[in-house]
Amino acid sequence: KSRVKASRSKSRVKASSAESEKSLLYLSHYMTKLEMPSGVLSTVVRNYHSCEKRYWYIDNSSSMKKIDSHLMGDNFERIKVSRWEELSECVCFHSKMSAKCFLPTTFSLMNSPSSGSQQFDVCCSNESDVEREVDQVHRIMTAGTPAVGKTPLLECISDFKNDISREASQLSSKGKHVTLVMCTQGLPTGRTGSANLAALRKFTHSVYSLSKLPVKIVIRLCTNDEKTTRSYNGLGSKLDNCECIDDWWGESLEVYLHNPWLCYGFGMHRLREAGLLWGLFNNLDERQLDLDEIHQFATSFFIGENESPGLPHPRDWKSFMQSLSELVKKEKLQWNPVKKKRTPWINLSKLESMYQPAQHRGNVRAPRESPRSSQQQHQQNEKAHKLPSKTGAEKGESSRPSQRRNQQHEEHRKPPPKTAAEKEPSAKPSQQNHQQHEDPRKLPSKPTPDVAPPKEVTLHDVLRSWSHQPPNFEKLHPLHHLLVTLPTTFPPVNERVEPHEYFSKWTPISGEVFLESGDELDGLLKRATRKVKIFLHPDKLPKDLTETQSFLFRAIWDVILESEAPTLK
Predict the structure, then answer these.
(1) Nearest-CA neighbor of 500 among 442, 534, 542, 455?
(2) What residues contact residue 32 under an 8 Å CB cut-off, 6+ apart?
(3) β-strand 177-184 against 215-221: which pairing, if any?
(4) Which of 51, 44, 47, 12 is nearest to 25 (CA)?
(5) Alpha-carbon Rg for the chain in angstroms
(6) What is the pLDDT of residues 18-72, one digit of tens each?
(7) pLDDT tens digits, residue range 501-538?
(8) Predicted structure pTM score
(9) CA 114, CA 504: separation in Å to the nearest integer?
(10) Which helix (H) or strand (E) segment is 170 a member of?
């Protein structure tokens, strides 16, 4: 049962001084093979030396036979394959890298196979056995056919935690850690063999407990299922030593949504899978880096950690960009899976558009709509189009469920709390035209007469100003506009809603992301919309929301779904 314990009983390859140098040479060789800048080698070497051993748990459930993954062809084309085929190629690559670079690794199938070994090691015993061990990995992964329906991640991680706990003190005293890589397409299953909330909670608790030990965790997803992605991404965003990554194409979209100035190269992805890149590399797919972080990233990526002279700081923007431009030009162009062509590691013009200080901008193109500029525009729209407060009939409409609303929101359907302005008697609402069905958030088509006294801006008005185009507010804003300007509906910009810590968890999307066209734009819109829906999903929302906060999230959900349907056919 105890796979880790059985593996530990074998003696690790003891690398001599000469062998250690040899492993570093092979690391350098792999960096070159992956077309990585020489500067990143220092980061990889540091993580390599601190890693005592790696453990891979491989999902071989029957769902891995589903054909919805991709491999890269000779001309960088996407070849559709099964999840198992894509993962097999990944595991075989890392087994070879483990052997060449003397990084002991134990691979374990989550379910017992019909034939062959369930656990196989590379570089864990005698050096003379390494070549045979790599061949064994290749045979097992290419010949095996997933057949069992369950995903016993909970059992695997519980066994792993129990064994690693015994060695935690020794690892910490040596400044070492172990890396756990979990490759899966589904949520953990319970004793009955089906995924359920109880099993997920136990798994989450085990991961949190494991994160307190000298362990770094990589969750390598083999699926695009929203529920699965939502559950695992929550862990990755909350724990410093836990990283949740998709396949190369999916992960490149995630990185581009937050840092579109960076080309997410294939080599970078492989090193993150291996657990050899941490720190800022973990944040690339979660949020937009600030200028200090970009400086730190570019320095470690192109020059190296603690190397001198370093890269000028962006405070001296001109010197920073000149030096960075020279470094970027020295590197090979990388295949950019978002652009579908070779591009530099860093798009300097996009970086300037997003970050260049105003005093240095001159004739350079101004940055695209950012969350901050969109907030200012939102406030201007409110002033320019003050609308009357809702009538009693309109209040009734606000609580009417939309035909598109997800069934999981049923229990939360309530109108927003009435403000003092809304409690005042008002005239009978005018009849309005609706394209498909009655929209409870539709603004009156006629502006307020000049003779009417000014009315307080309501939550209804704020949402209208965000979702619909002025001056008549009858047509929805484009989906990309809604995604970029989403923060304008949150407090403190939206003063009609009480503050809550959960609002700060949303990472704004730059308008620079949606300057693409065709398939590239569709892919980015789909990925960004998925992030919004994960953020707004009832399973993710806090339980202590006020009525107003709950109504806001429901209203945003409805607008996004309404815009998504015709945009992403």
Answers:
(1) 542
(2) none
(3) parallel
(4) 44
(5) 27
(6) 666 777 888 888 889 899 998 999 999 999 999 999 999 999 998 999 999 999 9
(7) 999 999 899 888 988 777 888 889 999 999 999 899 88
(8) 0.78
(9) 49
(10) helix 153-173
